[in-house]
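[09:14] KT: can someone run the structure on this one? pasting the chain below
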Amino acid sequence: MNADGLEDLVVAHIKGDNERGKDGRIKRFISVFLQRKNPKLRWISAPSYSTEVPSDAVLFVAGDFHPGLKGGEIALISYTGIKLLGGRNFIQEVDFETHVRGFFDFPADGGLFLWTLAPDLKSDGKKGILFPTKEGYLVYGPDPSKGLAYRGKIKIPSTERFGPDLETKFLNRFLTYFSRLPRVVALDMNNDKRVDLVTYRSKGLATFTQKDDGTFAEEPDTVTPLKVVKEAAKKSKGGDGKSDGFENVQLALKDLNKDGRIDIVATKTIGKIGVFESLRTQVLIFLATKNGIQSDKPNRIINLKGVTLFPEFTDFNGDDDIDIVLSSLRMDMLTNVKRAILKSVSTTYSIYLFTGGKKVYSEDPSFETDVDVDLELVEKQGRVRLSFFKGDVNGDGLKDMLTVSARTTLRVVPTVVKESFFGGKELKLDESEGGEVTVQTSPNLILKDIDKDGKDEIIFVYRKKLKSSGKAPKLDPRSIIRIVEEGQ
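[09:31] RB: done, structure tokens below
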């Protein structure tokens, strides 16, 4: 944020006494914690800068928006427009403010949510902002004089979703997903070094291509029909009225083979209405070619028992290829009995290493691991990932497994290379080298090498104020991680 080459933390929060303003709403604040150059004291608990948030702000995002200023700025998105905060103490308003009616009607009392649709539109390190409206999004890109400038409007009716009707007949938290806001993904779809905008509309996958001058048209430039989505939507609605089955599809867009074309990964949950034991998941991978995507011919189909979370994309083995981690929560009768007796849930994580070619991944996982998680934690968090495979905590180039398996336990298991039974090398999660930290956990965590030492740090984000026990976190002697400091 201060252009010194070190990553800083920008946090939205309220104060402990829930102080209210003249409008009766809880006061909200944004604080900037600058990282220090002293390796023994990177962070202190007091913020470097802090400012009260305007009462009409709904969302915020920090980043380098203004080409004419050093360091980063803070963008506040309200239901009436966008405001940039920058300057020496991050409390001065930059000469940019737009007044337009947005998607949201009013801010949440005591809440200020992080906005993720702030893409680097020109791949030059400067961020833009997609401002949500009732009819779609207004696009703002970097401008050297004002910070941000209007680049066009893309129309997406609020009735559209990124996939079929995701409100199924089930109320179970593992099967439902609801968002009033139509989803947009920012990707370079045509390998021209400019970010395009992609969403799902009733006729298929719609792409709004960024033009040479950085603007966007209201209507999509291309629409790719997706047979897998249409079939799932038809079955979920009962088809001819006689079917008791349902299908639920979610889509991920990723250039899996790094050929400059965006591929599609569809996660399809299949089952019979009211019969949880029938649930299973298919992951369908469609590779893009110069002629587009054949949505009726997946390159690879991976079958999983039970319900899976969204795929996690990571370079697991450090070979610069994109691997996939899939989770499977079993719903069969035996698992349900075990769940009732032991009060825990067993989730199977399967790691599929990139193999290349037209199939991209093997039909069977490279290896699997089971993780037991407290049932109470799963029921409270719902469909939230509790194990992560994106962090390299010991700096060996291999991704390790981090599990928030209980309210007070963080477990880290390193990935190692060992001799296989049949000769050669293979990857394994080495439980004997794993360790635990006794600390209040949260499924909201950040894995990032913020001090540039080749090892990822683990940052927990808490929704509520921590209850201090007065004791330092307990560290397993075998652990490959260490507590740097305990603070709010």
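[09:33] KT: thanks! The helical segments are 227-236, 333-342, 375-381.
[09:34] RB: yep, looked fine to me
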